[in-house]
Design brief:
The complex is a heterodimer of chains A (316) and B (396). Chain A has 316 residues and is α/β, with parallel strands linked by helices. Chain A has one domain: P-loop containing nucleotide triphosphate hydrolases (Rossmann fold). Helix content of chain A is 54%, strand content 15%. Chain A contains 13 helices and 8 strands. Chain A has an 8-stranded mixed sheet with strand order 3-4-2-5-1-6-7-8, with helices on both faces. In chain A, strand 6, helix 9 and strand 7 form a beta-alpha-beta unit. The longest helix of chain A has 28 residues, at 252-279. Chain A is elongated. By secondary structure, chain B is of the alpha/beta class. Among the domains of chain B are: 99-239, no CATH class; 293-359, no CATH class. Chain B has helices at residues 9-14, 29-43, 57-63, 77-82, 98-109, 113-121, 125-129, 135-149, 168-181, 183-194, 202-212, 214-228, 231-245, 260-275, 296-310, 316-327, 333-365, 384-395; strands spanning 18-22, 47-52, 73-74, 90-95, 155-159, 250-256, 280-288, 371-375. Chain B has an 8-stranded mixed sheet, with helices on both faces. In chain B, helix 14 links the parallel strand 6 and strand 7 (280-288). The two termini of chain B are 24 Å apart. Classes of the chains: A alpha/beta (316), B alpha/beta (396). Chains A and B meet through helix 4, helix 6, helix 8, helix 9 and helix 10 of A and helix 10, helix 11, helix 12, helix 14 and helix 15 of B.
Chain lengths: 316, 396
Amino acid sequence: MRGGALLDRRLLFVTGKGGVGKTSVAAALAELAARAGKRTLVCEMDAKGSLAATFDTTPLAFAPRELSPGLFAMAMNTEDSLREYLRLFVKVPLVGRIGPLAHTFDFVADAAPGVKEILAVGKLAYEVREDHYDLVVVDGEATGHIVAQIGAPRVIRELVQVGMVREQTTWVTEILEDPARTGVVVVTTPEEMPVTETIELLGRLETDAGVAPTAVVANRVLPALFDRRQAEIVDRLPDAEDVLVEAVGPGVRQVLAAAHVTEARRRVGNRHLERLRAGIPAGVDVLYVPELFTKATGRRVVALVAQALADELDVA
Amino acid sequence: MRRKGPVPLDALLASKEMVLVLGSGGVGKTTISAALGLAAAVEQGGRVLVLTVDPAKRLADALGVGALGNTATRVPDEAFADIRVTPRGELWAAMLDTKAGWDELIRRHAPDERVRDAVLQNPLYQNITGRFVHSHDYLAMEQLHDLHASGQYDLVVVDTPPSRNALSVLDAPARMREFFGSRLLRWLTVPYRSRLFTVASKPFYQIADRVLGSGFLRDIADFFVLFQAMEKGFVARAEQVEALLGDARTTFLVVSTLETAPAHEAAFLARELLRRDYDLGAIVANRVLPPSLTRRGAATSATRLAAAAADPDGALVPAVAAALGAAGPPVDERVVRDVLVEVATRFHDVALVAAREAERRAELAALTPQVLDVPHLDSDVNDLRGLMTLVAHLRA
């Protein structure tokens, strides 16, 4: 199976440059897993609400909500995560007292490296450790921030010498650095900067964050419609414009323009895909999701992306 | 402020001294920023600086900015000569260097050498400066202020950093100001200054000590105690930087593609600019499909083309093959047939996207009459020639 048994992992971080469709891919992977009978949690890490929009649902909260059978969704929130942490590990039951405490903590967390991330990543690793779900899919930070997110336990270990947090980094790191349990999916489009950032991230992910990349999803790929001989004809069609206009009307100029734009985009995209394939480490598969020509948004898009990924992963 | 009618790009650039380019990730902000700078340098003269954040390598090379930190470099005359353009002014480019920018701020605002060195050598300093209060965003604004105040440039174009929240650039100066004024900062640093725990903060420190370990917390507090010594300078500066955003000489350009998510973000940003009474110069709709694709005649022609090309006895395929053969090397009729059928069938897919784009564009046009369209180009823009093509579209 391509994608290295992607859905058999327990914790999947999905990342990618802004605008490449990271959230749709995270949602689609979660939907696929749930459809395969896995109890699945998908978590949005920033508070932008794009995961909720992708699922056509009301804003998500820290407490997971079952969107469809076996598919749970939540939104990460540092303060709620801290409350839960204090309740579970520090045994601080007094919620009233935590109020201002959480504020202060949020502030420290904003300033101190890794604290916010460890609360978030720790929460997700906790769900895995406690076997609350078969698979946790994380709509993670963008490529520029994902290393800070996944690598947080390492940073904390460097900076914090004693205390409970340090002890916790041990089991969190164990889960994160186990390639059988944790994977990273990098989403890109066939464009210059997304591909460059993907190659760059794949090159340093394992060294900097201790987590091995699992797969790359090339999103919005325009399918090759023409072989070389046909492509040559497409390029030459403007020479027959007069004949075509006479036969089927002046609207054919737009038809030719559409073919030209699409072919040009596909060719540029192809070059970037070649660069991608040449630049990624051995063992990391590329899964292709075609450009969707649909007027639908939300859940329908998730279903279409899920179908494309199912074909690539060879799962039902 | 709302404009009455569209203003040509050149008039807009001529009337401003600072241009801030906003938009969500992946929409082409950096390239558009470079094109705007180029347009001003070529057409209006004077010294124009483009401050970029993270340009694609080839574009950075074309502009002559490498990993040299935040020193401005001038795009050489030869580069313009190569594309047969004689600019009236000078085009300069610089790259935002967060680390160097922070060090510079500390040097400027530290009250004495002891504080300066203590901060620069603090083990947490590098980690923290890279992260807190959205330091990228603040530094971009800070540098804009410096560059403008230096009096060296007639126009400064700033390509803003990719952020998790598009508004964080606009909020950065206020957040920096509030950070120093916050009770929380005082509260956090009090016990380590006076060694007296207040009643309110005691439970916090007890728990925090257990969780984080007292050493870590003390490191953080030490750092902020040092930082507080720079409060006056930082706050005064943040106020000036904030004032710059609403200055009459500043304008904002919002860049977007016409896909759903970026366009919604662009609309949100534009509304927010208007709400804050900042100058929304224009919205740039980047990589758009030709709007003519949605004309009804186009779909009709596509349907007729599909039928005519598929007809085995039809006259169209031989006629097209003959026309192509007359203009170039001979072609195989079967290949022509396959291509025409495919082109005609696929047209509807592309037209669907174009129709969706037209809706998005109408939503943006409701916010400002100034929407500049840049079509899908046949290749990536990564040199001056490509940027000139962009400029031509922005002007049209």
